Amino acid sequence: MSKNFKALPIQLSDKLIAEIKEGNSLFQKPVKENGMPAFVKPINPTTGKGYSAMNALALGMQRRDDPRWMSADAARYAGNWVKEGEKGTLIEFPKTSDIQAIRTAEGKTIKDDKGVTQTKTVEFEKPQQGKAFLFNAEQMKDVMPLQEFLAKQEEGQTLSPVERAEKLIEDSKAVIIHGGQEAYYDKKRDAIFLPEKETFENETKYYLAAIHQLAHWSGHESRLNRPMEGKFGSQDYAREEMRAAIAGILIGGELKIGHNFGQKDAYMSSFSRILKDEPFEIAKASRDAQKIANLLLGIDLKREQKQSTDIGFKKGDEIAYLDTTYKVLETHKNKSIKVEDADGTRKVLKPEYGLYKSLLEAKANPREPEMELDEGRGQSEEQNYQMER
User: Fold this and answer.
1) Which pLDDT score, from 0 to 100, does residue 254 have?
2) Is this structure's pTM higher than 0.70?
3) Of 190, 276, 328, 337, whose CB neighbour count within 10 A is largest?
């Protein structure tokens, strides 16, 4: 692998900074010149599954109208073929196993009577970072026409995008107070304030404003419990806005209502500064945005119920969280635990600690691979290591 290879968060941050400077980032330009949404939720057409937030951003920033993404191998298995000369887009995912060639003691591969290399599945002790290059359906031959695919996707969906947005807001049970000229969330009162619906340019913009404020609402201590103490204009305030903006992109893509970060001009310089100084912040912001989207879309309801009833720690637990894995070495009667991370650092965590709560949530909601484990195989290391500009 090239020594100049940059991790996906760094590539993503670099590209976002450049796009913000040019004024055409997803935060600034929610609609393309052809009238299509700037972000289309990417999915694997074979499995029907989507991709987690940071990968979804990486794919969505390619500005494709077609939502279908998969590796060259997966496309070939599905009877499709990547067009000659096309470049893939890098994604990263937690990898728990690998398919490897069976070799002799001398290191030679073992083949069957037909000359096919024999393989075995190797399970990793700890999740490792996997990488793969994906291609959009627009880059492939012999794919189902887009309109036919989208029609199949919408089968059984009786609500329009606006109706789905209205239902999401109603299902949240958030306190929403109408009146005034500004849209904002008051954490102390745990209430959202919105101008009257008729004062918005159209109904869609009203719902997008409401969804953005619901993203902030999700950070209350009774819900996702994010730090939200920064004052307007501060970097901490901008970090929270970045999370809400990314969540709005994800939710808008899911509902097919689009997105609109109405306060874009006030935060672009702060976003650029954060991404330049701390490029891995985009990974953290994306993870938080995924949690926001999951909460508001109702994806995690059953898992949260399970967590509240029977999830706890036990000795030997290994929990993947952020960019490392924590192993539980000891548990105590007061529910505190002693853990060790992948670097060998040990610490005692009490139930009131933020990391304790995060690990409990990570255990209840383990990260799942976003693609088939063999989807990264067969990809040339020379295929677009740097994200397309």
Assistant:
1) 95
2) yes
3) 337
